[in-house]
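Why this split exists: single-chain examples teach little about how molecules sit against one another. For that reason, every record in the complexes split bundles all components of an assembly together and asks for one structure covering all of them. Below is a record exactly as it appears in the raw files.
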Amino acid sequence: MVKKGIKKSEIRSMCPISCTLELVGDKWSLLIIRDMLFFEKSTYNEFLDSGEKISTNILNDRLIMLTERGLISYTGTAKRKRYKLTKLGLELKPIIDAVGSFGMKHFEGSKEYVQQQLKGSGRKTH
Amino acid sequence: MVKKGIKKSEIRSMCPISCTLELVGDKWSLLIIRDMLFFEKSTYNEFLDSGEKISTNILNDRLIMLTERGLISYTGTAKRKRYKLTKLGLELKPIIDAVGSFGMKHFEGSKEYVQQQLKGSGRKTH
DNA sequence: AAAATAAACTTGCAAAATGCAAGTTTATTT
DNA sequence: AAATAAACTTGCATTTTGCAAGTTTATTTT
């Protein structure tokens, strides 16, 4: 069982880089946020079927955590939640952009992959 | 024993964000790179005594991995290695900058922490 | 030159995070 | 009313990280 997900983590240091990585530096958070930012995903099942195949327990855990940490929030009923980025969550965009730029420059085929992905989604070019 | 460190990872997807996170998205890589970028650290022991207290096995593992992946390289003898960022590694700066900016804006006391840290080091303001 | 120190690892074991496959529970459709 | 779907939950295996204590060879110190 995933008891508590990522540990409430007793702050490694007050370094802004370290703190930010403790907030969203796990294996999945930024990918979920990417899906919200670029592909306009908002529901559990939409997040579930992204290319990286997150598993259900982890997704559930991350959605709770990101919510607790004020990066996302939801509206709707318990069985039909719609998540969106909060003001704080939106401020992660520069990070995602920088990560994406590095990737598009250095991973062959990744730029094309993005184009493909955008075809099927809410078409958000930036 | 840390057999292989972070798995050679069978690529989760061709998404540039996902690929980049597989490259440096573990718990320590970006902190080591931060130490090189901002604090001009270059040796095993210098990395060891950063505020976040990485343990020796993990540090060793990460240094090997970052080297294998072409983000850092070293000169000097086996017992006196000096690491530096490669051209590719330097291209991670925009990511670190974005992560740092978010942190300085949202974690109270983190900006002051940076000032403190810079006092004792090679004084690199940006 | 011998002893002490230090730099760069290595080892073994424990704990935490992630992954996988298969449920369960209510709402919503058919 | 039955089938489907959305949002979880559970149990267990694997991977990754953390901790404490070595080891080995170079460099200083005495």
